[in-house]
Amino acid sequence: MSPTTTGTGAGASSGDALNAEALDLDAQHVFHSWSAQDGRTPLVVAGGSGSRVWDHDGRTLLDFSSQLVNTNVGHQHPVVVAAIREQAGVLTTVAPATANLVRGRAAESILSHAPEGFAKVFFTNAGADANENAIRMARQVTGRDKVVSLYRSYHGNTGAAIVSTGDWRRVPNEYARGHVHAFGPYLYRSEFWAVDQEQECERALHHLERVIQAEGPASVAAVLMETIPGTAGVLVPPAGYLTGVREICDRYGVVMILDEVMAGFGRTGHWFALDAYGVVPDLITFAKGVNSGYVPAGGVIISEAISSYFDERVFPGGLTYSGHPLAMASIVAALGVMESEGIVANAARIGRDVLGPGLRALADRHTVIGEVRGMGVFWAVELVADRATREPLPAAAMGAVKAGSMARGVLPFVQDNRLHVVPPCIVTDEEIAEGLAAIDATLTDIE
Ligand code: PLP
Fold first, then answer.
1. What NCBIfam families does the entry give (predicted)?
2. How far is the CA of 162 from the centre of ligand 1 (A)?
3. Which of 130, 137, 378, 446 is the most exposed place for a label (fewest CB within 10 A)?
4. DSSP for 390-430?
5. For residue 202, what are the contacts with CB-CB under 8 A and spacing of at least 6?
6. Distances (CA, A) of 236 to 6, 353, 354, 376
7. Are 365 and 436 in contact (CB under 8 A)?
8. 196-210: per-residue pLDDT in tens?
9. Using CA atoms in the order 68, 72, 76, 81, what is the torsion angle rounded to 10 degrees?
10. Which helix (DSSP H) or strand (DSSP E) does residue 247 occupy?
11. Helix, coil or strand: residue 251
12. Secondary structure class of 226 (helix, strand, coil)
C-alpha cells in the first residue's frame, strides 16, 4: 500500500480535511495517556508500510521510533496482515480455558526461541500485565512479598508494574505494596563513582546484594529487570552484570524475572536480549515485538521449575482474552516471517555495520552528543549541553531536535535528553543513511 491509496473510504474528502477531522475528533473525544489533555499537537497517522508511516494527505515519515518500539517486522507486513484476516474468518474469540490450535502453535513458536529449560507460556494482553503476572507467580512460588527493580526502568502502567517502574511515573500511582528499588549500572552517569565498566558492574552488583540483604532476603520474592533498560536510555549493561544478578538471585532463593517487552524478539539483533549475555532467568516477560503490536498481546515465558510448581496448585490469575485467536495468529505469522526473512540477522548486521558506526561517526562530528549506546536496532544518543559536565540538553532544545527530525522526514523517539534510534528490524541500509542524514542536519542546526 502506498500513501496515495490510504484514507477512510470517504472518497469525497481531501487528505487535508481528513487530517483536520482526525485532529478535531482526537482533541474532542480521546483522553490521552501520560499527557495533559490540552495543548497537544499529535501527529496524524493514517497508514504505513515497512519502515514508513503517512497521514491522510500522503505526507510520509521514516519511522525511526517503530511507534512505541514495537513494529519489529515493520508496518503492515502482508503475511502477518493476511494471517490475521484468515483467522478472523475462522474464530475471533475463544475462552482461555479451551484448547486452541493457533494458541498452542504460538506458544510452541515462542518457546522455540527461548533458552533451554523453559516449559510454558502464559498469555496476556500487553507488557504491563505480563509483568503483573510474573510478579504474582514469583510471590506464589516463594511465599515472599517484595520485588526489587531498578530506578531506571519502565515495566508498564498497571498496579504492580507501575510501582516496579523506577522513574517519576510510579510516584502518583504508588499504591501497590512490597516494592523496593536499586540503582543499576550506567557508567556515563555512575551512581557508584566508577571509572570503568568493570568497576561499575562490580559496584552495582554489590549494591543490589546489599539492598536484598538490608530488606531481608526472606522477604524478597523477585528481582525484576529489563535485560537492557529501554525507555530509561538503552542502558546496555556491562558484561557480567546480568550473570552476577543471576548468582545473587540463586544465593538468596529469589526469582529472576527479565523484562524483554521492549528488547525481545529481534530488536537487539538476538531473539532475546538475554542471549547476548548468556543469562537464563526464571521468567521472561514479552509483548511488543512478538507480533509487532498488530494485535495486543504479551505474556510470560515460564521455566520448567516454576511451571511444575503449579502442576498441582492453582495459579490465581487469568484474563478473558488470554491467548486471543487474532493475537495468536499474528504471533505465529510474525515469528514465521522473522525466521524466513532473516529479520533478526538483519537487525544484528544493521547495528554492527551500519547504524552503530553511523551514530559513532555523528558523535565524532557533533559535540552535543555525549554518548552513543546500543546494539541491533536499539540505540540511544544522549545529548548534552556540555560534554565536560554532561549536563543534559534542555527540554526546549530536545523539542527542536524532534521538530527538526520530523521536518526532514524522520519520526524520532525522543525521551528526556535522548534521541532513541529504534527503527523496525527490517530497516534497510538506504533507510538508515536517510535517517542519519536527517539527524546529522538537525544536530548541525541545534549546535
Ligand atoms: N516493559 C517494558 C520494558 C516496556 O518498555 C513497556 C512499554 O513500553 C512495558 C513493559 C509495558 O508494556 P505495555 O505498554 O504493552 O503494557
1. PRK06062.1
2. 10
3. 446
4. TEEPPHHHHHHHHHHHHHTTEE-EEETTEEEE---TT--HH
5. none
6. 39, 18, 19, 12
7. no
8. 999 999 999 999 999
9. -110
10. helix 241-252
11. helix
12. strand
- What value of ipTM does the predicted structure carry? 0.99
Task: Give the integer Cα–Cα distance in Å for 371 and 357.
Answer: 13
> Which of 132, 153, 288 best tests ligand 1's pocket when mutated (most atoms within 8 Å of CB)?
288
| Cβ atoms 364, 358 nearer than 8 A | no
CA of 259 to the centre of ligand 1 (A): 9
Rounded-to-integer distance, Cα 282 and Cα 319, Å: 22
Q: Are strands 220-226 and 146-150 parallel, antiparallel or unpaired?
A: parallel
Please report, as a single letter, which amino acid is at residue 52. R
The answer for residues whose C-beta is within 8 angstroms of residue 379's C-beta and 6 or more apart is 234, 351, 355, 356, 359, 372, 373, 420, 421, 422
Cell numbers at 413, concatenated: 523517539
* Residue whose C-alpha cell is 524478539: 265
Q: Which amino acid is at 126?
A: A
Beta strand residue intervals within 291-415, DSSP E? 298-303, 369-375, 378-386, 391-392, 410-411, 413-415
Distances (CA, A) of 170 to 115, 173, 231, 413: 31, 5, 14, 21
Q: C-alpha grid cell for residue 308? A: 511444575
pLDDT digits (tens, 9 = 90+) for 25-83: 999 999 999 999 998 889 999 999 999 999 999 999 999 999 999 999 999 999 999 99
pTM of the model: 0.97
Contacts of 361 (CB under 8 A, 6+ apart): none
C-alpha span between 157 and 167 (Å, rounded): 12
Q: Is the CB of 289 under 6 A from ligand 1?
A: no
Residue at 382: amino acid letter: E
Torsion of CA 244, 248, 253, 257, to 10 degrees: -50
User: What average pLDDT score do residues 233-249 get?
Assistant: 98
3-state secondary structure of 372: strand
126 Cβ below 6 A of ligand 1: yes
pLDDT, tens digit, for every residue of 145-166?
999 999 999 999 999 999 999 9
Distances 238 to 149, 169, 355, 408 between C-alpha atoms, Å: 17, 26, 20, 35
State how far the Cα of 131 lies from the Cα of 163, in Å rounded to an integer.
Answer: 11
